[in-house]
Amino acid sequence: MKTATRLLLAAALLAGASTAHAQTAPLPSLSGDWSGSLGPIEFTMHLADPAAGPRTATLDIPAQKVQGMAMRFTAPSDSVYLSIAQPAARFAGRRSADGQQLAGEWQQGLRVFPLLLSRNGATGKPAPRRQTPQPPFPYQSADVTFKNEKANVTLAGTYTVPADMGPFAAVVLLTGSGPQDRDETITGHKPFAVLADYLTRQGIAVLRFDDRGVGQSGGTLAGTTSADYTADAQAALAWLRAQPGIRKNQVGLLGHSQGGTAAVGAAIQLNGPDFLVLLASPALPGDEMLVQQSVALARLQTADAAQLAATEKVQRAMTQIIQKTADNAQATAQLLALYNPTGDARKAAELAPSFAAMTSADYRAILADRPAKSLARVRCPVLAVGGSKDVQVIATPNLAATAAALKAGGNRDVTIKELSGLNHLFQTAATGGPNEYGTLEETMSPAVLTVIGDWLTQHTKK
């Protein structure tokens, strides 16, 4: 499924180093209702945190008809841990200074997502982020649908067109990993809404759309691969080219993270894009990518060289097991020995979903992916941008690999930019860690918006 094939965060199977925080006074009770969302999926967690007696919690996910699911709840110091057994999933976060938010990560199998929970009733529904565009808009905006005929899937999105006289250059926005809506909504931020608004104001028409099975789009992500997402990108590109008032030879793709993989895949097909913008897009071999991510994430938790070396060693062993062992049952047995050498039955049960994901065809495809081979076949102009504090797609090596592959293929219209201080979402960040995304007010740095807008303006002059 798209979540597995396009997600770049490595499995957090090694416990990160934790630091105890001394407290001079008891912390306020966490009792109450806490809400947050992963893209379009809303969570509510009901916490009971009595002064004496055990903590208890339940989970509601209305979109999945989940209500009152029991959770295990612990809160050592200023940390908060909430978990469910089936499917195995866990939230790990910390209290904000005012006690009204819990910023952390939701881990389910191999998937790790930033999640910000806000206390209900204290601050009410969180106000829109400062950069989120608000109507009225100085351009035309319409809800549209288009069809991937080959897959027989209808996709829904938003099409924004400048108010000036056309014809216009145009671009399709492709989201990153996981089930994403057209705005790429995450922890209250709407990066693609911000980006589409900025570009449309610059005179560029923009199409952004919900992933399969998300929002108003049909189909499902279950069982799909990156090839399916590439096909959806091609369908979006064809629809955009067919619209009146669009310059047919100035229609491109902009892909964020694994959306970049889909963009590159479409660029090497017939009737591909006229230009590419790659934001935090992977270029290293898939197995090396996972190792580097795992170490970068671990480095946020510890500076201990031995622990970091152990993380890297286990990750490399994991990738080798999967790549060398085609039989899933045999691979699972070897992974179990690697991650659970003591044979603890409870831990084995907790790890089972991760092992199932690790041995899936999609995850095997990640490990086998060699982006440089596709990049070497791209002939259109390319802008590739990364943030120096990105811990999901490490900027320096991936940008270098992107430049080298494009150059090897003979592409001479290539612009590479590493922007200082920006994370995977292109926010100005302190650490770059995923648990920081929701705590930042900025949705997208003006620096990256300017780089994209200026490059597109230069490459789409009449």
Automatic annotation (TrEMBL):
The record's Pfam families line, in alphabetical order, gives: Peptidase_S15
Q: Does the keyword Signal apply?
A: yes
Say if the entry is tagged with keyword Membrane.
no
Report the Gene3D superfamilies cross-referenced here.
Answer: alpha/beta hydrolase
Where's the Xaa-Pro dipeptidyl-peptidase-like domain? 164-394
Q: Which residues form the signal peptide?
A: 1-22
Q: Which domain of life is it from?
A: Bacteria
List the keywords (alphabetical). Answer: Signal
- Example GO molecular function term? carboxylic ester hydrolase activity
Matching InterPro entries, A to Z? AB_hydrolase_Est10, AB_hydrolase_fold, Xaa-Pro-like_dom
- What name does the UniProt record give this protein? Xaa-Pro dipeptidyl-peptidase-like domain-containing protein
Organism annotation: Hymenobacter lapidarius
- Lineage in the entry? Bacteria, Pseudomonadati, Bacteroidota, Cytophagia, Cytophagales
